[in-house]
Structure formats: structure tokens, C-alpha cells
Amino acid sequence: MKYLVLIEVFNVKLWIIYKEGIGFSKLIAEMLQDRLEDYIDVSVGNAKKIDPAFVVEERLNYLIIGDVINKVIPSLEIQNWLLKYREISKKENLIVNAISGFYVALTDITIEPFWIEFLQDNVRAEIIYPPLLRLELNRTELVLENGAYDIVKDYTNEFIDFLIENK
């Protein structure tokens, strides 16, 4: 019950923007939404379908960016969305409380430093919420690796604690 105060008292808004690929980013974005929506107002959108101007207009407090990583880090689709977002949010003088991200890796490399740098350069935020959520894809079976749900659960629990501590 005490967590519900976040929505009612602070009118806290979170957007989760993801790149649509073979469906895993959408799945993770919806898992995050399901876990967070009892505590915070969460909207989820595909980067190709959601105009950054609309997101800025909503005066969001938090932003999570999701991507499927293969060769380009982050993908060109996410890069383009964030570049547009940066221009519009700068004009509107919007600074989000925190930004975070998740990615589904199609390789076995860890690319978190690249993500953090790109987010720092393109989103005006008080904090980049660590850690970024990293999931691996089992390419043989084209499924998320075992334990993906628990990783998402742990990430959202930490994010909720972060929200409560900062409000």
C-alpha cells in the first residue's frame, strides 16, 4: 500500500521505449510494465511508432530504452529516436529524473559502457540508473536464456526501491 503513494502523490510518469525486432524487446518492455505499473504510471511504445515529441509532451519523469543488440550499439533505430528526443526535450527544457535501459544481446559480449555513454550524450537526466538490464538470447532455440524472468524481477525490484528512496 505504501508504494501506491508514488502514483497518487507524485504523479510519476515512466516511458519504456523499445526497438521492435523479433519480439524480445517488446516482451521485456511488457514484463517491466507489468512489474512496475502497480507503483508508477508506465507507458510502453515502439520507437518506430511513438514520436519523441509525444513523450516529451507528457513531461515524463523516467525513461527506459530497450534494444536488441547485434552489431550496431545501440541500433540505428534507437539512435535516431534518441537524437530526435534530445532535440525536442532540449527545446522544452525537460530533464528526466533518471534514465535506464535494457538490451537483449545476440552475442556474448557485454556492451554496457557503450550504452551508458550514448544515454549520457542524448538524454538530459539527473542520473543514469545503473545497472542496465542485460539479457542474452539463446540463438540455437531463439529464446531468452533461462532465468530472464528472475533478472527482470530483480531489476524492477531495485528500480522500485530507487523510486521510493528518491521520493
Low-confidence stretches: 1-9
Estimated helix fraction:
40-55%
Number of helices: 6
Q: Judging by the overall fold, what is the CATH architecture?
A: 3-Layer(aba) Sandwich
Number of strands: 7
Write the layout of secondary structure elements.
Blueprint: H1 5-10, E1 13-18, H2 24-36, E2 41-46, H3 52-57, E3 62-69, H4 76-91, E4 96-105, H5 112-122, E5 125-128, E6 133-138, E7 143-144, H6 148-166
Parallel strand pairs: 1-2, 1-3, 3-4, 4-5, 4-6
Antiparallel strand pairs: 6-7
Helix pairs in contact: 2-6
Describe this entry's structure for a reader.
- The chain is of the alpha/beta class.
- It has a single domain, classed as Rossmann fold, CATH 3.40.50.
- The chain is built from six helices and seven strands.
- The chain has helices at residues 5-10, 24-36, 52-57, 76-91, 112-122, 148-166, and strands at 13-18, 41-46, 62-69, 96-105, 125-128, 133-138, 143-144.
- Strands 1, 2, 3, 4, 5, 6 and 7 form a seven-stranded mixed beta sheet that branches.
- Strand 1 (13-18), helix 2 (24-36) and strand 2 form a beta-alpha-beta unit.
- Helix 2 (24-36) crosses helix 6.
- The longest helix is centred in the C-terminal third of the chain and has 19 residues, at 148-166.
- Residues 1-9 have low confidence and may be disordered.
How would you sum up this structure in a few lines?
The chain is an alpha/beta fold and 167 residues long.
Task: Throw out a few tags for this protein.
about 170 residues, alpha/beta, seven-stranded mixed beta sheet, 7 strands, disordered N terminus
